[in-house]
Amino acid sequence: MSELVPLCQIRDGQIVTIAQIAGGHGIVQRLRVLGLRPGVRLTVVSGMFAGGPIVLQIGRTQTALGRGICRNILVEPNA
């Protein structure tokens, strides 16, 4: 298993797998409703390195998350 990194540190175009979500019940439930839970593979579409939301693609769906929430999502980069 490789080192876990916060989702907000992943570069555009990189594919990752969610390893864990560090946060309370509310944040975990909110992300679960969006389809984001441990074991899910996703692609970072746009991170806007200077700030702003991070756009993710899960299957055919795209969603944008703020950097604060993305700090709580720990991912494992895929080779």
Protein topology:
Layout: E1 5-6, E2 15-21, H1 25-33, E3 41-46, E4 54-58, E5 61-65, H2 67-70, E6 73-77
Antiparallel strand pairs: 1-6, 2-3, 2-6, 3-4, 4-5
Notes on the structure:
- By secondary structure, the chain is α+β, with helices and mostly antiparallel strands.
- Helices cover 16% and strands 38% of the residues.
- It has helices at 25-33, 67-70, and strands at 5-6, 15-21, 41-46, 54-58, 61-65, 73-77.
- Strands 1-6-2-3-4-5 form a 6-stranded antiparallel sheet.
- A hairpin with a 2-residue loop joins strand 4 (54-58) and strand 5 (61-65).
- It is globular, with a radius of gyration of 11 Å.
The coarse overall form would be globular
- Regarding quaternary structure, how should these chains be classified? single chain
The secondary structure category is: alpha+beta
- Uncertain residue ranges: none
| Total beta strands | 6
Biggest beta-sheet profile: 6 strands, antiparallel
Mean pLDDT: 90
Q: For the largest beta sheet, what order do the strands appear in spatially?
A: 1-6-2-3-4-5
Nearest-angstrom radius of gyration?
11 Å
Q: Hey, roughly how much beta strand do the residues contain?
A: 35-45%
**In sequence order, what are the helices and strands, one letter per element?**
EEHEEEHE
How helix-rich are the residues, as a percent range? 10-25%
Provide a count of the helices: 2
